[in-house]
Structures are given as C-alpha cells and as structure tokens.
Amino acid sequence: MKAGMTRIFDENGNHIPVTVIKLIPNIVSQVKTVAKDGYEAYQIAYYEKKEKLISAPKKGHLKKANIPNSFYKFAEIKTVNVDDKNIGCEISLETFKPDLYVDATSNSKGKGFQGVVKKFHFAGGPATHGSTFHRAPGSIGNRATPARVYKNKKLPGHLGCEKKTMQNLKVVEVNKEKGYMLIRGSIPGGKNSFVKISKSVKK
Fold first, then answer.
1. Secondary structure (DSSP) of the chain
2. Structural domain includes residue 151
3. pLDDT tens-digit readout, 167-185
4. Residue 156: inside a domain
5. Which pLDDT tens digit goes with each residue over 57-81?
6. Domain that holds residue 51
7. How many domains are there within the chain?
C-alpha cells in the first residue's frame, strides 16, 4: 500500500526521492490448478477490515482456507508448481532486498472528465484579441468526405484511473520490523492505493 513520498540522503549526502510502501499481510487463500481451473496460480487475500464489513461469501471463502483474519480484497499471482500446502501461508518478503530492481503496478489518479488541452496537451487558441477559440478541440471531420468521425479521434473524455506499471525501480530499503519499503522514484496512484511489486522483467 502506497503511504506517500519523501526523500533520504545517502552516505555521500546525495538526495534520493523515494516512495514509501506500507507492507501489509498477503495470505494465500486459494490454489488454482490446471485440472480444475485451466491454469496455475495462487490467490492472495489482503487488506483487513472489520468483520462486520466483510460479505458472507468472502467470509465463507476465508473460512474454507482456515484464515481467521477478515480480508477484504483478493488478487492472483500466476506461477508454476503450485502446492495446496501453501494455503494459509503468508507471502515472504525475503525476495525483496536493497539494490534489487522491481516493477510497480498500480492505478493512476483519476482526473474525471477532461478536455483535450489537459488530456492530450492540445495547444488551444489565442486567449485575447477577441478570439472565441480557446480550449475547444476544433474540426473533427469533413461534411461530405469522409462524412463521419474517424475512430480513435482525440476528443474530451475520462482521464486517469488506469493500470500503470513503472519499470526498473530500485529498492532502497526494506524494514520488516516497522513494516515499510522505500523504492526510488515515483509510483502511480495516490496515498493508500494498492501497489503490486514484482521482480523487474527487463533487468
């Protein structure tokens, strides 16, 4: 879970901007197999809430896996050679160590319905001298030919709230006792947004 951003200084006094990741428990709640599901993966339960806020189907699912905690969210991690013995086990953090390069995936901040100037960086028109053209998109097609608007035309619409991945980010510090991780650079999303961290695919 993203806690925010800050900065630290190394032994040489260099300033390093870092994103603070709050480490929350990730418990294996189900095992997906080729025979039953067509693929192999572990289902992970995370983000605890009060028990009264958990729906009955989720409570039954957690009870079947002998997980006493009231987890609210679930995700899957595809892998090979899955084992039913891992149900109820917590995901280890031994993989993540300083100087390791990782990929961070999260949903970007939602901006709502935006115009073409903010969404696509259109230049817009003159601001003064009697101009009536300021932030409009302009012409989007001809009358007779093609007599329609081409697909994928850049027009106003919803901006943000998309799954984004930042690649090749360096792990600066992992503190298991206090439950946080420092990753160099920025990560998509606002505070308290969920972040999936995995080994870098390009390093």
1. -EEEEEEEE-TT--EEEEEEEE---EEEEEEE-HHHHSS-EEEEEEEE--GGGS-HHHHHHHHHTT--S-EEEEEEEE-SS--GGGTTPBPP-TT--TT-EEEEEEEPPEEEEE-HHHHH------SSTT---SS-------SSSS-SPPTT---SEEEE--EEEEEEEEEEEEETTTTEEEEES--SS-TT---EEEE-S--
2. no
3. 999 999 999 999 999 999 9
4. no
5. 999 999 999 998 899 999 999 988 8
6. 24-91
7. 1
Q: Which residues of 48-79 are buried (b: 16+ CB within 10 A; e: fewer)?
A: eeeeeebeeebeebbeebebeebbeeeeeeee
Q: CB of 30 within 8 A of CB of 82?
A: no
**How many angstroms separate the Cα of 66 from the Cα of each of 51, 115, 200?**
15, 50, 33
Prediction pTM value:
0.85
As given in the structure block, the two tokens for residue 78 are: 């595809």
Q: What are the angstrom distances between the C-alpha of 2 and each of 46, 132, 134?
A: 14, 44, 38
Distances (CA, A) of 117 to 27, 51, 92, 151, 157: 44, 46, 45, 19, 11
Q: Which CATH number belongs to the domain containing residue 56 in this structure?
A: 3.30.160.810
Residue 197 lies in a domain: no
Whether 62 maps to a domain, the answer reads yes
